[in-house]
Amino acid sequence: MISALSILLLASTAASRDITFPPVAGYQSPMMHLSGDESLDITGAKFAGLTTFANLPYVHCLDQEGFEKYDIAILGAPFDTGVTARPGARFGPNGIRAGSRRIHPDSAWSIYNGKNVLKEWATIVDCGDAPLTVLDNTVALKQLDMAHKIISSRSTNTTDYIVPRLVTLGGDHTTTLSALRSTFKHWGAVSVIHFDSHIDTWDPEVLGGGVSHYAGVNHGTFLHIAHEEGLIKNTSI
């Protein structure tokens, strides 16, 4: 037999599920709609969906038949087998993207100039990571060279530039060699401003131990190799 107390408890439980939210003061995200379930928008959640840099749109930039235009492309280079110690930078692109998830194109306003830096003039996309083998450094760098070539050969969305700009998320410093090779094809030799506790200009015969050409291409020799290939100017610092 159901007692009056049980009926009262059941009624209270049912009533407690029907929650009415009070008005929310302060800033409200445009994706939050509390008026009714039918208008609930979940398309702009920062911590859902694909993890891209600053929640920028993902584009399969390496698709040879792709026609989507962009001005700035984010490319991950998960490569760390060119180091002499402390591997782990292959997880760098993923870590950088995860650390940027609170940034969103709709709210990327600069406090210095009052402009939305992700929407001001450029179409910015995240191309994901270049598919790099972890078993052969020579092949991996050729794969990265090809990724740079494909992405930088696309048409831009703006008329101010004809070559898309690439921002590479490393990866150890060896990946810079592919970026310099790609840059050289469009603009010739450039001056490099290099921030590091090491100058990374070791002679491959020294840091590579003279064992093989394969061993000589690493994170401490890439600027030496770039100079030998004529990719950088003597004004680099």
User: Spans of 5+ residues with little confidence (pLDDT < 50)?
Assistant: 24-28
The helix tally amounts to 7
Q: How would you state the average pLDDT, rounded?
A: 84
* Dominant shape: globular
Strand content: 5-15%
Give the strand line-up of the largest sheet: 2-1-3
Structural class: alpha/beta
Please report the distance between the alpha carbons of the first and last residues. Answer: 87 Å
Helix content bin: 25-40%
Instruction: Please state the CA-atom Rg, rounded to the nearest Å.
Output: 25 Å
Report the strand count: 3
What is the string of SSEs from the N terminus onward? HEHEHEHHHH
Main sheet: strands, sense, barrel: 3 strands, parallel
What does this protein look like?
Helices cover 27% and strands 8% of the residues. It contains seven helices and three strands, in the order H-E-H-E-H-E-H-H-H-H. A three-stranded parallel sheet has the order 2-1-3. Strand 1, helix 2 and strand 2 form a beta-alpha-beta unit. Helix 3 packs parallel to helix 4 and helix 4 packs parallel to helix 7.
Summarize the structure.
Belongs to the arginase family. With 237 residues, the protein is of the alpha/beta class.
Which features characterize this protein?
237 residues; three-stranded parallel β-sheet; 27% helix
Topology:
Layout: H1 4-16, E1 72-77, H2 92-99, E2 124-129, H3 137-152, E3 165-170, H4 176-187, H5 204-207, H6 213-216, H7 222-228
Parallel strand pairs: 1-2, 1-3
